[in-house]
Amino acid sequence: MKLKSSGLSSWSRANGHGSLRGAAASADEEPGPCEFLSLEDIRDAMTTLRPHERDILELAYFERLSYREIAARLSLSEKTTGTRLFRARARLKRPLEVSYQRRLANFRG
User: No. of H helices and E strands in the chain?
Assistant: First the structure.
């Protein structure tokens, strides 16, 4: 699987994390996921998904296709495309949270 950094940034922005190169957390805040999660973490999390979930996320975030374009490419309705993206993102959330918590624990010492 080949990930493009621009796609990763799109994924991050779409999930409310801002830029992956965002400013470091202030002194009274712990760093957020964008300061800890690496491209390797994203790749590892993607391997936990089913092939069709991985494919639809890659089309949406790494190839930056619209729901309509994804639906046409995969012979799905736009509604099904949206549902599958929702479910794939939900399944991706847990392994990313685990990676984040592991890195945060290492940061805290």
Answer: 6, 0
Phi, psi torsion values for 29, nearest 5 degrees: -120, 145
Say which CATH class 39-109 falls into. Answer: mainly alpha
Residue of 9, 90, 95 whose CA lies nearest to 46: 95
39-62 per-position pLDDT tens digit = 888 889 999 999 999 999 999 988
Inter-residue contact 71 to 80 (CB < 8 Å): yes
The tokens describing 106, both together, are: 């290492």
**In terms of Cα–Cα distance, which of 33, 36, 39 is closest to 1?**
39
